[in-house]
Write a structure and sequence with these properties.
Blueprint: H1 2-11, H2 29-45, H3 57-77, H4 82-104, H5 107-128
Helix pairs in contact: 1-2, 1-5, 2-3, 3-4, 4-5
Length: 131
């Protein structure tokens, strides 16, 4: 369900520049979202949330690659808008938990980041997308 919502919102990113309170240059945002953030977040959300056994090395490697993709995308998304930057900071904080979880192979820390990474995405889309 999260993926369907996320894809719906991303396909409407071209509406970002319309009807916002602040003048924000969203040039390149859709490309970064479609090529880096969406695949990375989908990789994270596809991890078995209810696993009772520790994740295997392949799962941790997938989480690591996805987290690195998110981290590499964030600098290119910086804009001169405080609310926008707040969402990016929240996304970065959640991703930092995910990155740390890989280092320590800590499922609990991963699940905290997993839960927290959704909200800045959803809230930013809600605020900056015009329907």
């Amino acid at each position: 369900m999260k993926r369907v919502l996320l894809l719906f919102l991303i396909f409407h990113l071209h509406l970002f520049a319309q009807d916002t309170d602040d003048s924000v240059d969203f040039t390149g945002v859709m490309q970064v979202m479609m090529t880096l953030l969406t695949p990375a977040s989908n990789t994270i959300w596809e991890v078995d949330y209810f696993a009772t056994e520790p994740y295997d090395d392949q799962t941790w490697q997938g989480i690591s690659v996805a987290s690195d993709q998110i981290a590499s995308a964030l600098p290119s998304l910086a804009r001169d808008n405080a609310r926008w930057m707040n969402y990016l900071n929240e996304l970065q904080n959640a991703n930092n938990k995910i990155r740390d979880s890989v280092e320590f192979k800590d499922m609990v820390l991963f699940l905290q980041g997993y839960d927290e990474i959704y909200y800045p995405c959803e809230d930013c889309h809600t605020e900056f997308l015009s329907y």
